[in-house]
Specification:
It is a multi-pass membrane protein. InterPro entries: Ser_palmitoyltrfase_ssu-like. Helices cover about 80% and strands about 0% of the residues. The protein has two helices and no strands. It is mainly alpha-helical and about 80 residues long. The mean pLDDT is about 85. It has one domain (about 1-70). The radius of gyration is 22 Å and the shape is elongated. The longest helix is centred in the middle third of the chain and has 40 residues, at about 30-70.
Length: about 80
Amino acid sequence: MLKFFERLSNFLSYWYFRYLMVTELYMVETWEQRVTNTAFMLLFVVLSYFNCVYLLNYTASIAKYLVDEVPFSSVT
């Protein structure tokens, strides 16, 4: 079980390192990293909320409209 957490820690450390390299946050100070990470997380949360609340209902209504328009008698 301990090996699992060690592997998980290595995996997360690797991807955090890649995130720092891609966003070039390794060059800034710690407080700037925290502000940027907070902004990214806030953006992610807002977009997730939008997708779950608005986009899901919109696509469900479109799917319902499309399904209601298909004549099922011609399918068989």
